[in-house]
Amino acid sequence: MKSSARLKFFTLIELLIVISIIGIIISISFVSFSNVRQKGRDTKRIADIKLIQKSLEDYYRDEGSYPATLTPGQSLIGSSSNTIYMQIIPQ
Fold first, then answer.
1. I need a surface site. Which of 1, 11, 38, 59 has the fewest CB within 10 A?
2. TM segments (predicted)?
3. How do the domains of the chain map onto residue ranges?
């Protein structure tokens, strides 16, 4: 009778091992997810910098000089041509 009852339940060691494995898997996936988010933010920053660079090159080509200031969240508009080089400067 005791042997059949023993087969129906997990031992404490088995439960601890399963919980440990689940914890390891969760921690690995969390680190991987954090790295993916970081790479996504880096890719967005690089794209923003390239867009700013191109807009400034166009501005310089048309105006003959670079703008005195750039304010994040504002537009980049040419002073003499009223050309909009960038709708919103990224932050």
1. 1
2. 12-36
3. 11-86
